[in-house]
């Protein structure tokens, strides 16, 4: 069940393309996650220079930014609420596509020794490219699922046990201060070869780093990064209302029919070949011959989302590898060795 936004947020909930969307009142320039304009934009390419930023800010010396806007991007029948959150960073916490930020939620907790300590840092994959949703490098976006606790006995939500940081972020009013660390992570980076096909497999908020990829590949004019390969996104969610950034994805599919492919696995709406629920591994399996060929020819394969997605995917890939006379372990090892295999699950 989708949780409702707490009244603390100022603004108005409106409906865009059938979805409830939060519109901030205080922002000077409103960005929106619901865009169909995927034309290439000019960006300040100074952000292409230098080494990849890593752990610029730490728990002891964090960065303070402000929330610009929070939008619910799931529909009413989604199996939970996910928000697109734009943060005003003034460009002072630069990052590369595929990295994550840490967020330290406000408040304290009592640790195992009975001492009052600040809450720990939570990581969030960055859902915009380094240029942000406004293409000026002054913002960064997160895609956050509100963690709720449903009592297994009563089936009811227990607000006392709700996730601390995700609820803080999803309830944040424009202007709320946010304490950040990072950027962190080098597992999901884009390959230097701009012609290498990218096969991105996401479940839920695991789509976040791939949004940073597709914006860089298709929506920005970066002279030193001209993407010429195939971008293939497999996205697993429960139902149509749980799709994330679908408007942007449909526009890309329409504008780049030979370079952008999109396949959904809607577990509660579609059936797999055996008549069971359509999970992400079932959808990927439908194209396994093509995927194995692409990987043989230098494609990069990325996985991001909940940890639980990997066993099913691995079991499927192992079965397919065997049917092709391949030793699965050796095959995966080879991909890892050639840096073609990227997994970040949580
Ligand atoms: P917490 O307060 O840490 O609680 C965790 C869970 O425990 C919640 O489900 C909560 O309901 C439950 N809980 C709390 N109290 C109790 C209790 N007494 N009994 C039983 N259960 C309880 N998340 C995203 O949404 N988007 C991302 O892009 C994203 N990227 C990530 C990238 C990485 C590399 C990693 C490691 C994690 C990422 N996460 C992402 C997950 C994120 O870091 C947090 O773990 C998540 O938001 C939950 O944090 P929270 O503070 O809301 O919940």
TrEMBL record:
Domain FAD-binding FR-type: 60-190
Main enzyme class: oxidoreductase
Major site of localization recorded for this protein: plastid
PROSITE patterns recorded: FAD_FR (PS51384)
Residues annotated as binding NADP(+): 125, 145, 205, 267-268, 277, 305-306, 344
InterPro entries: FAD-bd_FR_type, Flavoprot_Pyr_Nucl_cyt_Rdtase, FNR, FNR_nucleotide-bd, FNR_plant_Cyanobacteria, OxRdtase_FAD/NAD-bd, Riboflavin_synthase-like_b-brl
Highest taxon above the source species: Eukaryota
Catalytic activity: 2 reduced [2Fe-2S]-[ferredoxin] + NADP(+) + H(+) = 2 oxidized [2Fe-2S]-[ferredoxin] + NADPH
CDD domains: CYPOR_like_FNR
EC number(s) reported in the record: 1.18.1.2
Family: Belongs to the ferredoxin--NADP reductase type 1 family.
Name of the protein described by the UniProt record: Ferredoxin--NADP reductase, chloroplastic
Organism: Volvox africanus
């Amino acid at each position: 069940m989708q949780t409702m936004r707490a009244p603390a947020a100022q603004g108005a909930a409106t409906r865009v393309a059938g979805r409830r969307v939060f519109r901030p009142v205080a922002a000077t320039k409103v960005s929106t996650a619901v865009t169909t304009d995927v034309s290439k934009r000019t960006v300040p390419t100074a952000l292409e220079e230098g080494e990849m930023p890593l752990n610029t800010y730490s728990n002891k010396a964090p960065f303070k930014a402000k929330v610009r806007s929070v939008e619910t991007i799931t529909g009413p029948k989604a199996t939970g609420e996910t928000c697109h959150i734009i943060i005003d960073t003034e460009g002072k916490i630069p990052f590369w596509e595929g990295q994550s930020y840490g967020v330290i939620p406000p408040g304290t907790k009592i640790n195992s020794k009975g001492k009052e300590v600040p809450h720990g840092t939570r990581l969030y994959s960055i859902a915009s490219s380094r240029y942000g949703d406004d293409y000026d490098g002054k913002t960064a976006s997160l895609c956050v699922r509100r963690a709720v606790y449903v009592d297994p006995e009563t089936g009811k939500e227990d607000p006392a046990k709700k996730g601390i940081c995700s609820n803080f972020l999803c309830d944040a009013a424009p202007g709320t201060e946010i304490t950040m660390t990072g950027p962190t992570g080098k597992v999901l980076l884009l390959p230097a070869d701009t012609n290498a096909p990218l096969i991105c497999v996401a479940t839920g908020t695991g789509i976040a780093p791939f949004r940073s990829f597709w914006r860089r590949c298709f929506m920005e004019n970066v002279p030193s990064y001209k993407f010429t390969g195939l971008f293939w996104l497999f996205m697993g969610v429960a139902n149509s209302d749980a799709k994330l950034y679908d408007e942007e994805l449909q526009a890309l599919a329409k504008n780049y029919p030979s370079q952008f492919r999109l396949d959904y696995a809607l577990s509660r709406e579609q059936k797999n070949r055996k008549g069971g629920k359509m999970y992400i591994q079932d959808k990927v399996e439908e194209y396994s011959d093509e995927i194995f060929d692409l990987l043989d020819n230098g494609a990069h394969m990325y996985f991001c989302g909940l940890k639980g997605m990997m066993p099913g995917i691995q079991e499927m890939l192992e079965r397919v590898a065997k049917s092709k006379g391949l030793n699965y372990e050796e095959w995966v090892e080879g991909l890892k060795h050639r840096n073609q295999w990227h997994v970040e699950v949580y």
